Amino acid sequence: MPATFRWIETTGARLAAESFGDPDDPAVLLVMGATASLLTWPEALCEELAAAGHFVIRYDHRDTGLSTLCPAGAPDYRVDDLATDIVDVLDGFGVARATLVGMSLGGYLSQIVALDAPERVASLVLIASEPLGWEGDPLPSMSAAFLDQFAGLQTLDWSDRTQVATVLLGIERSSAGTLFDEAAARARIEAVLARSPDIAAAFNHAVMQQTRDWTGGAARLTCPTLLLHGTLDPVLPVANGEALSETIPGSRLVLFDGVGHELPDRILPRIVEEIGRHVETA
Known about the structure:
17% strand; alpha/beta; single chain; 8 helices
């Protein structure tokens, strides 16, 4: 089914968004992680969720894809602005309440919205995410291999498309588990680069500032919450998913063996199944 494109006006930015399915179906808003555009949500996932009876929305964060860009290294927004954008996207599509499906930073942002605007959040699905305002023992850090690959951005010649694609592929490979599909990753990176006027701006997410103290935030969540996490996640290790499960009352944790910080094709049917069951019972 073809996607419907829409511009969303938000405070200080214009966001590119797409929807799939019938607007009368229960809404599912996909919120991606740091540095990632809407293309990081597989189109097959969007189509399958829509076919299963959901109105699916995905969008480009600020500084990604077709959305408003800031100069590289100089974002004019903070974490809370990205959370407010979620509500603006819902408003732009005329959606009163939705299930927020947030991956990585997108899950963190979704937790903020669930606390700030609980009337807009029917339920949460947090994929490869972390607890908002965690108060327990320190959680495991990112793997050395991932950090080494990410450090390659510091000396990257952003005008050299081949070099950029190679570094981004290395980051994806170091984020993956045992199901890494290099051909699919290369194709996705090429699509992202072709659609991004300034891919360096996406990494502004790594330097944006936090606005508020969210200590104990996850423990205050009351909406139905599904947690999906890969057992081999090297970016936000599975202990983060387990901490979310311990912290959010009534949450349900589903683990994917061999999966890293990624959405490999082979687990998409299970994700659709789990989200469908969650939305139906929320």
